[in-house]
Amino acid sequence: MLKEIVSGQKKQKERFLSFSYIKRTKEPFAQKWLDADLIKVILGPRRSGKSVFSFMLLKDRPFMYFNFDDEILSSAGGLSTAELMKELHAAYGQIKTILFDEIQNLPNWELFVNRLHREGYNLVLTGSNAHLLSKELATHLTGRHMPIEILPFDFNEFLRAKKFQIDKEDGFLPQQHGELLNLMENYLLNGGFPEVCVSNLDPKDYLDVLFDALLFKDVVKRHKVKFSTQIGNLGAHLINNFASLYTVRKLLEVLNLKSATTTEKYIKYLEEAYLLFSLLRYSPKSVDRIKSPRKVYAVDNGFVSAKAIQHSPDKGKLMENLVFTELVKRGVKPNRDLFYYKTRNNREVDFVVRKGTEAVELIQVCYESITLNIEQREARALFEAGGELSSKSGKVPRLTILTWDEKRETKQDNLTVQFVPLWKWLLD
Predict the structure, then answer these.
(1) Which of 332, 329, 305 is nearest to 317 (CA)?
(2) 67 lies in the same domain as 46
(3) C-alpha span between 346 and 284 (Å, rounded)
């Protein structure tokens, strides 16, 4: 049986390699580490392009391939790793580079991978479960792995998928500007999952089915959740309240869940499956960060539009969600480098970006057209927060308000707030 699986997957690999794909932003970073004596771990949600990214990374060299997300394997009820290595070498010969897809489906995978690494194999792994992998990587592969996170397309990748290019030599023509805004509206509503961007699939139908499949496969099935309806309701509720504050106590009240411990556990499962992110409030005191309400964001705007109960989702919040996911794609780590903030006067700042112990940028997101009242309201929150978060080394260097398509600046007390169009920020 294993021989047939390896043979079938080898044909799949050759077929995948014959296709052309969208170049990913993370490719240069990953290429830099490809020959290092480290295990390369490609993390991210299902259908975000991890396998394709790995194929493109390895396309110019011989490599063995095995996908552990195989129905025949799960029905067989187990796998001998010694037998697997025998069949891989029988199919591929003396090759020492291996791509293992969806490695988390192999029990005790980290022990197997560690052994192969000691034996001199160059390993690339993909996995769809953030916590499972990071926990075991930290425990068993400390200092011997390089995590590379692949999320749905960023805006540059989305534009490549749509075959849209800005002709910089001729300047930014009005026609191009209008087309770009039209594409950004599409991206805002439908998100960046590769199959939505490159195919003519109905994004709502595709993403509705994908969300439910991820919920079942990577949450209910993997964690053997007994009350699947409860966790389904929790996931739908949080998606419908994206870019909003929540507390566990309020969730217990609204959804009639059993206990705070169970609710926390369910939220963690949803985060592990890359469906949601929770963002803490920024405070130098850890107790304040933990006790304050958290903000919830979806991994992709398309999930919001697909699962929304309201007829048309709030575009201001969609824009905020998009900015959050873009920051994550740029490598800004939520709850380590990225927080939300409330000033002493209870004015909310959408994002604090931190480097080390210093706040380096405050970001406010505003979809509305900038009138004088809106300018004063949004800038006031940044000026206040900028003053409160100043450190011994000086003021917060960047205060930014991201707009839909307006550019300007305003100053107060030696602080400058830059109003930057979203498309410009995304392309930078």
Answers:
(1) 305
(2) yes
(3) 17
